[in-house]
From TrEMBL:
Cofactor note (record): Requires a divalent cation, most likely magnesium in vivo, as an electrophilic catalyst to aid phosphoryl group transfer. It is the chelate of the metal and the nucleotide that is the actual substrate.
GO cellular component, one term: cytosol
Organism: Erwinia sorbitola
Protein's name in the database: Ribokinase
Domain HTH deoR-type: 3-58
Pathway, per record: Carbohydrate metabolism; D-ribose degradation; D-ribose 5-phosphate from beta-D-ribopyranose: step 2/2
InterPro entries referenced in this protein's UniProt entry, alphabetically: Carboh/pur_kinase_PfkB_CS, DeoR_HTH, PfkB_dom, Ribo/fructo_kinase, Ribokinase, Ribokinase-like, WH-like_DNA-bd_sf, WH_DNA-bd_sf
Family: Belongs to the carbohydrate kinase pfkB family.
UniProt: substrate binding residues: N108, V109, D110, G136, K137, G138, A139, N140, E238, D350
Length: 402
């Protein structure tokens, strides 16, 4: 078969199957995996397909572009169109083995200084070590959900600087099933300056969001296909709120459950509770959202009730060594923390949220998923680096220890 013919056939196959592995295509066309990889690279360069972990998937850009252009760029009109289509859409495929999680969120470059203790204002302190690595709550949560066994589609935005290639390489080499990385011509890739104290692994973070704050309506609209095929949408607050809000509206219209991790704190979280199925603040965020200072289980219960009174459907307050508190249907449930030898708490919340989303997408109840996520996060704090996540078998082993 000629090269062009094979590439067209690959596109036909992808159209029928949505996504396929390199190994499957190599067998189907009786060629080597190398040949298929070069075919996929060429098709990806032409914008015909999107590479994903171990294979490729079609880009339904034309379909989406048509839908989006018909709406004149008006997001509300797009939602109405989709609402009209929803009744006609096919039921979910019950044979799939992995839950599907769509994540809209940030990518940051994390510049980390290990310090014996946090510096005081005006003080210069020699660091014990320094690293530069991938981070951003969105990317970390996408890593966590993938390692927890979900099929993840991640949408993010970086600059055109050298860190954009760093982001692309990191995501390509990860377990994340597929991703779409937009580039801002104006803002740089987001970054975070992080201190990790060697006393207890505690962290302090200053974030410059940069390109993360420049997601457009059109870019969010381009998630439609992947979001429609997902069980759960997971968002945080490191992007421009208009994009996060539109993604949540889109998910609600498509009947996809929404988890919002309201981090870093912004009062915007209170303006969109109608679109959120599960809100997952930590103690600091819960205090700011509720006006109740959270410092133990009783104050967490008070804060959760105050957040529900403001319109939240379900709240999970994550409290590190104090575990997690669930408030659902007026009932509290406390998930005890798993003992851990904490070396770096950066990304602990991301570990919890990504694992929680994966477990929920896999069909677990809120309490089961929160227990799984607590075990996952306890393993994450035993590793250095915000994006350095454990895997599912390790979590199973930790759960078995309880
Ligand atoms: O939650 C940890 C993350 O917060 C870091 O990776 C940093 O980039 C900030 O987004």
């Amino acid at each position: 078969m000629y090269l062009e013919q094979r590439r067209n056939s690959i596109l036909d196959y992808l159209d029928q199957h949505d996504s396929l592995s390199v190994a499957w295509l190599a067998t189907a066309f009786s060629v080597s995996k190398e040949t298929i990889r070069s075919d996929l690279a060429a098709l990806a360069t032409q914008g015909m397909i999107q590479r994903c972990h171990g294979g490729a998937m079609v880009i339904r850009r034309n379909l989406q572009a048509k839908l989006i252009s018909e709406t004149g760029g008006n997001f509300e009109v797009l939602l109405q169109r989709l609402e009209g289509q929803r009744q006609r859409s096919a039921p979910r495929d019950s044979t799939r083995t992995k839950g599907r999680v769509c994540i809209l969120g940030s990518f940051n470059v994390d510049i980390v200084a290990k310090v014996a203790r946090f510096p005081k204002g005006g003080e210069s302190l020699l660091a014990l070590g320094s690293t530069l690595g991938p981070g951003g709550k969105g990317a970390n949560q996408a890593m966590a959900a993938s390692r927890a066994g979900a099929r993840v589609h991640f949408v993010s935005k970086v600059g055109t600087d050298q860190f954009s290639q760093f982001a692309f390489d990191h995501l390509s080499a990860s377990d994340i099933h597929s991703f779409r990385l937009y580039q801002s011509e104006v803002e740089p890739t987001g970054n975070a300056i992080i201190y990790v104290s060697q006393q207890d692994g505690e962290n302090m973070i200053a974030i410059y969001s940069g390109a993360n704050k420049t997601l457009t309506d059109g870019e969010v609209a381009e998630m439609t296909h992947e979001l429609a095929a997902s069980d759960v949408l997971l968002v945080q607050l490191e992007n421009n709120f208009s994009a996060t809000l539109n993604a949540m509206k889109l998910a609600t219209t498509l009947g996809v459950r929404v988890i919002m991790n309201p981090a870093p704190f912004s009062a915007d979280a209170l303006a969109c509770l109608q679109y959120v199925d599960v809100l997952t603040p930590n103690e600091t965020e819960a205090s700011l959202l509720s006006g109740v200072e959270v410092n133990d289980l009783d104050s967490a219960k008070e804060a959760a009730l105050a957040i529900v009174r403001q319109g939240a459907k379900r709240v999970i307050i994550t409290m590190s060594s104090r575990g997690a508190l669930i408030l659902e249907n007026g009932q509290f449930q406390h998930i005890a923390a798993f003992p851990a030898l904490s070396v770096d708490t950066t990304g602990a919340g991301d570990a919890f949220n990504g694992a929680f989303a994966a477990a929920l997408a896999n069909g677990q109840t809120i309490a089961q998923a929160a227990t799984y996520a607590a075990a996952f996060a306890s393993l994450a704090v035993e590793r250095e680096g915000a994006s350095n996540m454990p895997d599912h078998p390790q979590v199973v082993a930790r759960l078995a220890q309880r």
